[in-house]
Design brief:
The chain has 255 residues and is α/β, with parallel strands linked by helices. The chain is built from nine helices and nine strands. The protein has one domain: 2-enoyl-CoA Hydratase, Chain A, domain 1 (Alpha-Beta Complex), CATH 3.90.226.10. The strands form two sheets. A six-stranded mixed beta sheet has the order 1-2-3-4-6-9, with helices on both faces. A three-stranded mixed beta sheet has the order 5-7-8. It starts with 5 loop residues before the first strand and ends in a 9-residue tail after the last helix.
Length: 255
């Protein structure tokens, strides 16, 4: 029997999902399937006020395992990955990302899709996909609405490492906490939200989302379509993935 890499802790109207696949909590098809199953059962729960997503081992999520991006695996991986965000969008209560260590690649997308993002002072954010000849489709749809078009293009096209402070200054991160205090601080926040009326939490979120996230979801589907049907028809993305898996520098053919 395979080990579960996603745990759900539920207590009353609060819940916490933890990704636990050491050392970097990378996402493979098995982990994605577990996340889809976990979120599926929570999306229509009107008693849920707050859901915290975090990673074990003091790191949030290092992203999608590179092998899952290859031609042979992407057709299975990508629909699962996108379904996670479809289900997250349907969650009635507040979704919170608690980022410690790295939130890179798909881990960055998981964090940025949450309603609120808190980060430890050692947290880093990065989209390295461009170095494989790819782009992050969820981020391409979500980040412009959070940090603006120009900064989104800079972060995605440079693949630079973003500090917690820079992410906070850009408006992505709500608050930064000392890495030794994150458990104390997140508990304070969870208790505050948990003390509120469930309909008040749910309808406040829904009012904000109706003016913002309908176009985000449409953009996300369009971005996924461009990724799978346009980008992946080219040769360079497959060269980039192959080179990264082999530890070599890619030779771009610009095709």
């Amino acid at each position: 029997m395979s080990k579960s890499h996603v745990t759900l802790n539920r207590s009353g109207s609060r819940a916490e999902i933890t990704i636990n696949r050491p050392p970097r909590n990378l996402l493979n098809v098995e982990v994605l399937e577990e996340l889809v199953t976990t979120l599926k059962h929570m999306r229509e729960d009107e008693t849920l006020k707050i859901l915290v997503m975090r990673g074990a081992n003091s790191t949030f999520c290092g992203g999608i395992e590179l092998i899952e991006r290859t031609r042979e695996h992407a057709g299975l991986m990508m629909p699962l990955f996108t379904q996670i965000f479809d289900f997250m969008n349907q969650i009635r209560g507040l979704t919170v990302a608690l980022v410690e260590g790295e939130a890179h690649d798909g881990g960055f997308e998981l964090a940025s899709f949450c309603d609120v993002v808190f980060a430890a002072d050692n947290a880093t954010f990065q989209h390295p996909e461009i170095t494989y000849g790819l782009f992050p489709p969820i981020a391409a749809a979500v980040l412009p609405r959070l940090i603006g078009r120009n900064r989104t293009l800079e972060w995605i096209l440079t693949g630079e490492l973003i500090s917690a402070k820079e992410a906070h200054d850009a408006g992505l991160v709500n608050r930064i906490w000392h890495k030794d205090k994150v458990n104390i601080e997140i508990e304070k926040f969870v208790q505050k939200v948990d003390s509120l009326s469930a309909p008040a939490v749910i309808w406040t979120k829904r009012a904000v989302d109706r003016s913002l996230y309908a176009p985000v979801m449409e953009g996300m589907r369009m971005s996924e379509s461009i990724y799978m049907l346009e980008l992946m028809r080219n040769l360079d993305p497959h060269e980039g993935i192959k080179a990264a898996l082999e530890g070599k520098k890619p030779v771009w053919r610009n095709l």
